[in-house]
Amino acid sequence: MNVPRRRNLVDVPTPIRCDSVELRRIALPLVEPFRTATGTVTVRDLLLVRITADGVEGWGECAALPEPTYTAEDVAGAQRVLTDHLVPRLFAAGPVTPEGLAGALDDVPGHPMAKAALELALLDAEGRATGRSLAARLGATRDRVAAGVSVGLLAPDALLARVDDYVAAGYRRVKLKVQPGADHGPAAAVRARHPDLALQVDANGAYTRDDATTLAALDDLGLLMIEQPLADDDLVGHAELARVVRTPLCLDESIASVHAAETAFALGACRIVNVKPGRVGGYLEAVRLHDLCRARAVPVWCGGMLESGIGRAANVALAALPGFSLPGDLSASDRYYERDVVTAPFVLDDGHLTVPTGPGLGVTVDLDVVESFTTAVEVLRP
Ligand code: NPG
User: CA spacing 20 to 30 A to 105: which of 171, 178, 246, 294?
Assistant: First the structure.
């Protein structure tokens, strides 16, 4: 079913002249700690970007975590790069389209999450100026997306109780965090409890090439995939592993761009890709990555970074593109947060999230809630 298209759409990229860029840090308490092989998050220290332009405003969200343990970016560093290097380039570019933004920033290598936050704010502003939803702008073809949920590292009993709750809530897929010493045990326990559940595991690079036997032992659990078992730069290791492990390998941290995906496919390093806009530098590169994977018949799903309703709205719009054939890390707002920063938090409906159809992100930021969680605000002007 197609996403409802609004009339008088502007179907071409629209230059946006930015009058100001606000960098706002908020601290969102999680309903429970989220533990992974790379650290534990109890409060989501989030960087929000708000662009004001031609009478509209656009919101973006930076995926970077407080600690540089998922990738080399951290939230404070991303804010500094935006303040000192990226936002000045945006201002110097004058009126710029979201496509043009990459060119304005391309003399700064790296910093994909910082760049993605700025691009999203520009895409949101463009959408609110033109009346076009982000979903339509990115090429969405669905009006709802299957919701998957990610479970952090938990003690055995807590893990089973949490998975029971999520299955009862209707989630279409469960992802377990695993690491050496906590892999086959927990995964087998969940499989025994839920024989037909769509189940996958994510190692965040916690294993080495010497762990091939341990990882191959997961093959008897009927998993959808093993995500990022080895280090992000070890594509050769993943290709070797793919020859001894039957379960499909999925890459996340390794796929920093479309070019990285081409290399991974050339080496046979993965059969599935986690498309995560913050990791690849923005939603437009994420669409290009989707297009490449679709052309190669590689299934993709949308990864998550504990986003608030702002980033979540953008991820849901992206996940509505046709190549997103697997449930993503797209859970309801209440999976992580008591209070979301948007007036209509995302809720599970028959195991799906509804794609916003309003202009831009299609959500309204609740400024009172944002203010109540704000820890710092910085406004930049040309
Ligand atoms: O549901 O938004 C979510 C979180 C999904 O597990 C998830 N993200 O490696 O993709 C990841 C992982 C992660 C999140 C890793 C935070 C490290 C920190």
Answer: 294
pLDDT by residue (tens digit) across 315-324? Answer: 999 999 999 9
Is the shortest distance between the CB of 306 and ligand 1 below 6 Å? Answer: yes
Taking alpha carbons only, the member of 299, 348, 286, 11 closest to residue 146 is 348
CB distance 103 to 71 below 8 Å? no
- For CA atoms 382, 111, 324, 284, the dihedral sign is positive
3-state DSSP percent of the chain in helix, strand and coil, to 5: 35, 25, 40
CB 330 within 8 A of CB 304: yes
* Distance separating alpha carbons of residues 72 and 90, to the nearest angstrom: 23
> What is the pTM (predicted TM-score) of this model?
0.96
Which pLDDT tens digit goes with each residue over 197-212? 999 999 999 999 999 9
Q: Whose C-alpha lies nearest to ligand 1, atom 12?
A: 305
Q: What value does the mean pLDDT take over residues 95-104?
A: 97
**In degrees rounded to 5, what are phi and psi of residue 76?**
-70, -40
Give me 228's structure tokens.
């990022």
Q: ∠249-255-258 over CA atoms, to 5°?
A: 120
SS (H, E, C) 198-258: CEEEECCCCCCHHHHHHHHHHHHHCCCCEECCCCCCCHHHHHHHHCCCCCCEEECCCCCCH
* β-strand partners of 380: 21
Q: Which residues have CB under 8 Å from 181's CB, separation 6+?
A: none
Instruction: Check if 276 is active-site.
Output: yes
* Domains of the chain as residue ranges with CATH: 20-130+366-380 (3.30.390.10), 137-354 (3.20.20.120)
- Cβ partners under 8 Å of residue 152, min gap 6: 33, 34, 35, 36, 40, 177
Question: How far are the Cα atoms of 7, 95, 119, 120, 228 from residue 126, in angstroms, in the given order?
Answer: 16, 11, 10, 10, 35
Q: What distance in angstroms lies between residue 380's CA and the mean position of ligand 1's atoms?
A: 30
Report the pLDDT value the prediction gives residue 54, as an integer from 0 to 100.
83
| Phi and psi angles of residue 12, each rounded to the nearest 5 degrees, phi first | -115, 155
Q: In b/e form, how buried is each residue of 255-293, taking b as 16+ CB within 10 angstroms?
A: bbebebbeebbeeebbbbbbbbbbbbbbbbbbbebbebb
**pLDDT value of residue 43:** 95
